[in-house]
């Protein structure tokens, strides 16, 4: 495959390929990909081109796609093992278990559990021992204004730290706590969520398995650092959270209907901006692939009790879903 590199500006490089075009949309991260129909069977060459662009740009936007849950799922499998979302059985697509609904569209007059998800900075499923690798979201309906998603490049955030701070973080482990997810959840669902997902420990800095580069892995869902008190940890977490989402590290995606956006949870954080009229519909579907199994439970004994309680109350979870407020 020959790539023609056309330099069109100081920070803008266009790669012209026989079928697929990749145009950066942000300096820190993000690219727009055209010339490919994701609803069709892709060639291995097309998949390789997309993966190369993904590794380089971290967030890929595919505008004007015509996808449904089945074709979205088929495309997702190019990026690893599908996540069946055992960690959050609250907002699935009714006919497709691997597809999550991100929607405020009422179901039987009630607000779905996935409405207003992800409104603080996070990486997907970092509250599990096997957090997501790729996430894909397809936009079906959007509000007239707002409802964007922001992404921050955690390679860049890490690189911008002082050598001493990087050295300190390199040996650190962070406790990721599901109770720190966005506060707009129904309390009953949040309790069930916590039982299903006891706190887990991940490195504060991850080495990306494909790029080989270190990326900061601390965000708004980190509660404390292992071996440090909460009092010691909190100011450092606050600093890192603020540092990592400075505008210079961020790409803000303004959704269009039929956008498919693919991102890499191993080297970025993201946030769903809640700046839209709740009377308007924001309706999207999401899939993820399983990342490496490298996390561990913070407290295995407490986790076992928590998971037993979750199993015992699985019916309660189902009931909780149907009892969501309007
Ligand atoms: Fe997310």
CATH class: Alpha Beta
Provide the CATH architecture: 4-Layer Sandwich
Tell how many strands the DSSP assignment holds.
18
The helicity comes to 25-40%
Radius of gyration: 20 Å
| CATH fold name | Double-stranded beta-helix
**Quaternary organisation of the protein chains:** single chain
Uncertain segments are: 1-10, 316-326
**Relevant CATH superfamily:** Clavaminate synthase-like
Widest sheet: strand order?
A: 1-2-3-4-5-15-7-17-6
Could you characterize the architecture of this molecule?
This protein is of the alpha+beta class. The chain has one domain: Double-stranded beta-helix (4-Layer Sandwich), CATH 3.60.130.10. 25% of the residues lie in helices and 26% in strands. It contains 8 helices and 18 strands. The chain has helices spanning 44-57, 69-76, 154-159, 163-170, 187-196, 230-244, 300-312, 314-322; strands at residues 4-9, 12-16, 21-24, 31-34, 59-62, 100-103, 132-141, 149-153, 173-176, 200-203, 205-207, 214-216, 222-225, 250-253, 260-264, 268-272, 283-290, 296-297. The strands form 4 sheets. Strands 1-2-3-4-5-15-7-17-6 form a 9-stranded mixed β-sheet, covered by helices on one side. It has a 4-stranded antiparallel β-sheet with strand order 13-9-10-18. Helix 5 crosses helix 7. The longest helix is centred in the C-terminal third of the chain and has 15 residues, at 230-244. The model is unreliable at 1-10 and 316-326 (pLDDT under 50).
């Amino acid at each position: 495959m020959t790539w023609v590199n056309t330099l069109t500006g100081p920070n803008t490089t266009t790669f012209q390929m026989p079928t697929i075009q990749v145009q950066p949309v942000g300096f820190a991260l993000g690219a727009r990909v055209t010339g490919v129909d994701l609803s069709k069977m892709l060639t291995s060459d097309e998949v390789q081109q997309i993966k190369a662009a993904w590794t380089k740009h971290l967030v890929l936007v595919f505008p004007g796609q015509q996808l449904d849950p089945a074709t979205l799922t088929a495309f997702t499998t190019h990026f690893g093992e599908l996540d069946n979302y055992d960690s959050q059985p609250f907002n699935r697509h009714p006919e497709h278990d691997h597809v999550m609904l991100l929607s405020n569209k009422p179901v039987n007059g009630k607000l779905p559990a996935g409405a207003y998800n992800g409104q603080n900075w996070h990486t997907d499923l970092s509250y599990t021992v096997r957090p997501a690798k790729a996430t894909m979201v397809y936009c079906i309906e959007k509000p007239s204004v707002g409802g964007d998603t922001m992404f921050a490049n955690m390679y860049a955030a890490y690189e911008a730290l002082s050598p001493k701070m990087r050295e300190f973080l390199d040996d650190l482990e962070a406790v990721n706590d599901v109770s720190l997810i966005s506060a707009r959840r129904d309390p009953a669902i949040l309790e069930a969520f916590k039982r299903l997902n006891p706190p887990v420990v991940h490195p504060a800095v991850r080495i990306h398995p494909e790029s080989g580069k270190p990326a900061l892995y601390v965000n708004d869902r980190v509660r404390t650092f292992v071996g440090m008190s909460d009092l010691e940890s909190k100011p450092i977490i606050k600093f890192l959270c603020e540092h990592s989402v400075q505008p210079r590290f961020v790409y803000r995606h303004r959704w269009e209907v039929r956008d498919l956006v693919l991102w890499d949870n191993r080297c970025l954080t993201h946030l769903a901006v809640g700046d839209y009229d709740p009377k308007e519909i924001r309706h999207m579907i999401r899939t993820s692939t399983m990342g490496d199994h490298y996390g561990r439970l913070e407290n295995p004994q407490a986790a076992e009790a928590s998971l037993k309680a979750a199993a015992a109350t699985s019916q309660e979870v189902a009931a909780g879903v149907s009892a969501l407020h309007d």
